[in-house]
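Chapter review: from sequence to fold.
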Amino acid sequence: MTAIPDAPPSPVPTLTLIEARVLGTLMEKARTVPDSYPLTLNSLLLGCNQKSSREPLMELGEAEVASALDNLRTLNLVRESSSGRSTRYEHNFQRGIGVYEQAAVLLGLLMLRGAQTAGELRLNADRWYKFADISSVEGFLEELQDRPAQKGAALVIKMARAHGAREQRWAHLLCGAVDPNQGNGSGGPASASQAERLSRLEAEVAQLRETVQKLCAELGVSQPGQP
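The token string follows.
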């Protein structure tokens, strides 16, 4: 079994869903369209929002992708370069996370397409890397699952077998913990998505509360629920 290289001394960062999409898209295009790589912001945006080979589908804006790139650069997972008048971006995933090429391919596919079986990963990886067989895919997945804490801890998890399914699926942990018993078929890190939605709702509620307080103060009336 191929050993996983030493990871950077800092813990593996927890990515947002948008950061994972941006990073996965850069990893994909580096292998599938090398003549156009590194990518401009516009090309990267199109890749993030494409309707094929993506789960879930996204409709990101330029500002969202640019913000994700800034954060990923800070984490040493993306590099910026200039070509003519265009700024271009490339990933630094293998060195930044501390994994070999085969493991990086599997993580990139999981970030882009959601949870998949070892067989699905081998098929979907065809343009990225040609695995000899399903057992070799499973071997790298098991290494990523058994990754010790001093190397950044587990990066994937094996999901519980869904009702009627023949094989178990694998999900990445780069966006946070995943419930191994989730059977909704979406394949993405549900807990991370729920946490982001909750965070946005809390921010909206706080903003609304502040607006109500200002309006009440201007009108000289009590806030709702107050005597």
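Two observations follow directly from the output. The mean pLDDT is 86. DSSP finds eight helices and five strands in the chain.
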